[in-house]
UniProtKB/TrEMBL annotation:
Taxonomic path: Bacteria, Pseudomonadati, Bacteroidota, Cytophagia, Cytophagales
Record-linked SMART domains: Y1_Tnp
Gene3D superfamilies: Transposase IS200-like
Organism: Pontibacter toksunensis
Protein name: Transposase
Annotated signal peptide: none
Length: 160
């Protein structure tokens, strides 16, 4: 499956943020760090029911994002994006109409402080490494702003 730069549009990133906030409030998701890049996202999070939350999050956001792409009059890539997600859906084992997210998720157990710090730095520096911003806290869709002492887009639980 190809990666598409969907999250270059704020409205699509906002759908993801709103859904994460809902999972925090209603599904017992603890969010420690996050970053939405143009074509993927990273989370450091926990929950007793994490696989279920991720499944529900992906199912909901997939439908909402596809609908948003379909109805967005300013979306110049509409035909290509919908073709790409339709092609991925047809190729999937579930034979879905559209497949937005990759199958599964890639949990990594952060079992010590060194590993936690390494992943936190990687996640927050992703936009810097990609050349989008000079400082991690300048990326709007990231918890780096929170870790720099300001208030970011989503509430987080700090890693200490």
């Amino acid at each position: 499956m190809q990666w598409a730069d969907v999250f270059t549009r704020r409205e699509y990133s906002e759908i993801v943020c709103d859904s994460l906030a809902y999972c925090q409030q209603e599904k017992n998701l603890t969010l420690y760090a996050w970053c939405i890049m143009t074509n993927h996202m990273h989370l450091i999070c926990s929950s007793p029911t994490l696989p279920d939350i991720i499944r529900d999050f992906k199912k909901y956001t997939s439908k909402k994002l596809i609908k948003s792409i379909q109805t967005n009059l300013q979306e110049s890539r509409k035909g290509w994006l919908l073709w790409l997600f339709k092609y991925a859906g047809e190729a999937s084992a579930k034979n879905e109409d559209y497949k937005f997210w990759q199958t599964g998720y890639h949990p990594v157990l952060l079992h010590n402080n060194m590993l936690m710090e390494q992943k936190l730095n990687y996640l927050h520096n992703n936009p810097v490494t990609a050349g989008f911003v000079e400082e991690p806290e300048h990326w709007h869709y990231s918890s780096a702003k929170d870790y720099s002492g300001n208030v970011g887009r989503l509430s987080i639980t700090f890693i200490e």
